[in-house]
UniProtKB/TrEMBL annotation:
InterPro entries: SusD-like_N (IPR033985), SusD_RagB_dom (IPR012944), TPR-like_helical_dom_sf (IPR011990). PROSITE patterns: PROKAR_LIPOPROTEIN (PS51257). This is Glycan metabolism protein RagB. It comes from the Bacteria. Its main location: membrane. Belongs to the SusD family. It comes from Christiangramia forsetii. Residues 112-230 form the SusD-like N-terminal domain. Keywords: Cell outer membrane, Membrane, Signal. It is found in: Cell outer membrane. Residues 1-24 form the signal peptide.
């Protein structure tokens, strides 16, 4: 049985969800009155349904309130991609994120404020379920400790995601009454807040089985991976102005220890991570689960990337958002040894010479990392490993698929797309939803978490085989695009060694960008490393010469590393919540 893919449990969860969302929009008043109480639901059967509802909550996102895919917050906000769509005014909130123009904290109801609300709604579900389960005797509920551990894992995940976006957040636990929760501020010291997140994952790590029969449930393996990720973020100690002032060696040692506990393997083909038929494979450590044809009207599908389909193809819906930057495309260049150009990748542009037929010219002698054709739609090259779609039309990516090339260029996104004849699709008007999972942690993440910690501890030679393992898989991932008609310009080499920590550090950062390009972690990586201002302003200085819409964009250190606390939350708490610096 899989969670969120079993009709009976989905319907139960949705019924409970409707009860749990019947009150105020603010999370502090989210628990219903006169509908459910701990007393009338404190049975093992109801507890199981509440846990399912909690799992549903962490993926109850949408196009304008993302919880799962971080394309808005982590990709567009970085040097990986542009907003795209029909010009700057189309979903203008995201344009302001891309321009780093967020000096007014009240940004309406879309995106970051909605994400804040959606995550705290999920936390309310989790805490309600915990309060119910805590009151059930173990003799009446043999799964009690495991379910408590799952719920604390989910709570840690929610707070982790919120902290990456907003930094200063209230940590809400099940032992707080509604009145007590209303008195919790967002002024915890940074390291203390990280420890609270880690403690929830630690409880999960200590109380969950290594693996669970039901696909999608948190297990000890996922908890170990999340502890490695949490301690890695925590290791980069920030001051009040978001600047990295120290790197904690003991935290890095914990990263290595927890990474060593994670079992898994890389998919043999990089493409498998982004195809619905391979979901929940060996590389997926933990993912949000979705479903289709489950007895509900549109299924439990994800619309979080519903704006991002290629536009005007006749094959997809709309709306042409999330387009690769020229900088991102250039990053896939390789040298004569198949290694990335760590310092000079952006000295010249590739694949930007559009021909009369709408394709782009490939320069003689150009070699690239094959992950380019798994990440970016390039005119003239096959899209999603296909050159045709039955009788519907051809799948060679076209210049005309770009909605507004005069503003945003013509490079598309590929990872979040499926072939248009996929049975995983639902269309609601022009928007496409898919039942494909959204992966939160891949095994490649864990390998590079460990490599990063080793490099920062001056053990950089130990990182060589870890980075090479990721690169070897990239080198082996050429068949799908070549079979579909891509010209084979691929070359991926391995590192023999690193001559210095400085070179190892550059290689690690570059590998993370190539491996997770346009998946969403890029901006958060730059903030964690304390390199956001330097990297992004250098990117903007060059990219604005190619894309006029970026002419006035500038990243301000000490402010733009995090989003503003939504003004409505500050107002609701009577000023209890503190605003982030600079807003």
């Amino acid at each position: 049985m899989t969670i969120m893919k079993n009709i009976k449990y989905i319907i139960t969860a949705l019924l409970l969800s409707s009860l749990l969302t019947s009150c105020s929009e603010d999370f502090l008043e989210y628990e219903p009155e006169g509908v459910l109480s701990n007393e009338n639901v404190a049975t093992a059967e109801n507890a199981e349904s509440l846990v399912i509802a909690a799992y549903a909550g962490i993926a109850n996102d949408d196009m304008i309130g993302p919880l799962t895919h971080m394309w808005v917050y982590g990709s567009v906000r970085s040097d990986d991609s542009y907003k795209g769509g029909g010009g700057r005014g189309d979903v203008g909130e995201v344009d302001r994120y891309e321009q780093y123009y967020l000096t007014v904290p009240d940004q309406g109801e879309l995106m970051a404020p909605r994400t804040w609300t959606n995550y705290y709604k999920a936390i309310s579900r989790i805490n309600f379920a915990l309060r119910v389960i805590n009151d059930i005797p173990e003799t009446e509920y043999d799964q009690k400790t495991i379910r408590q551990a799952e719920l604390k894992f989910l709570r840690g995940h929610c707070h982790f995601m919120l902290k990456r976006i907003f930094k200063k957040i209230p940590y809400i636990t099940e032992d707080l009454s509604q009145d007590e929760a209303a008195e919790i501020g967002n002024d915890l010291p940074n390291q203390e807040l990280w420890n609270m997140i880690a403690n929830d994952f630690l409880f999960a790590y200590n109380n969950l089985p290594q693996a669970q029969e039901a696909v999608g449930r948190a297990d000890r393996n996922a908890a170990a991976a999340y502890l490695a990720k949490t301690r890695l973020y925590q290791a980069y100690v920030q001051d009040e102005n978001n600047q990295v002032i120290n790197i904690n060696a003991s935290m890095l040692e914990e990263v290595i220890d927890y990474a060593n506990e994670v079992t898994g393997s890389l998919e043999p083909d990089y493409a498998n991570n982004f195809l619905v038929e391979f979901e929940n494979g060996p590389e997926s450590i933990w993912a949000a689960q979705f479903s289709i044809n489950d007895g509900t009207r549109v299924g439990r599908v994800s619309f979080v990337t519903g704006l991002n389909s290629p536009h005007g193809t006749g094959l997809y819906g709309c709306c042409g958002f999330h387009l690769a930057s020229q900088n991102m495309v250039n990053a896939f260049k390789t040298d004569s040894n198949g290694l990335p150009l760590l310092d000079s990748f952006n000295d010249s542009d590739i694949l930007n010479n559009v021909q009369e037929d709408g394709t782009v010219a490939v320069s003689s002698g150009l070699t690239v990392d094959p992950r380019l054709d798994h990440t970016v739609g390039v005119p003239g090259r096959p899209f999603k490993y296909r050159n045709t779609v039955n009788e519907q039309g051809d799948m060679i990516y076209k210049f005309s698929w770009a909605r507004d090339p005069g503003v945003y260029g013509f490079f598309g996104n590929m990872k979040e797309q499926q072939a248009p004849d996929c049975s995983c699709y639902v269309k609601e008007g022009p928007f496409v939803g898919t039942s494909r999972n959204v992966i939160f942690i891949r095994y490649a993440d864990v390998l590079l978490f460990k490599a990063e910690a080793l490099i920062q501890l001056d053990r950089f030679e130990e990182a060589v085989p870890l980075i090479n393992e990721v690169r070897e898989r990239a080198a082996a991932s050429t068949q799908k695009p070549v079979d579909a008609g891509a010209s084979d310009i691929y070359s991926v080499g391995l590192y023999n060694s690193f001559p210095s920590k400085e070179v190892a550090w550059k290689a690690l950062k570059f590998e993370r960008r190539l491996e997770f390009g346009m998946e969403g972690p890029r901006f958060f990586d730059l903030v964690r490393w304390g390199e956001a201002e330097e990297t992004l302003n250098a990117y903007l200085d060059e990219e604005k010469t190619k894309r006029d819409f970026l002419a006035n964009a500038i990243f301000t250190a000490g402010r733009d590393e995090y989003y503003p606390i939504p003004q409505r939350e500050i107002d609701f708490t009577g000023g209890l919540y503190e605003q982030n610096p600079g807003y």
